Amino acid sequence: MKQILRTTDPTQIVFAKALLAGEDIDCFEMDVHMSVLEGSIGILPRRLMVRDGDYLIARRILIDNDFSLEDV
Question: Where does the DUF2007 domain start and stop, copy by copy (predicted)?
Answer without folding.
Answer: 1-63
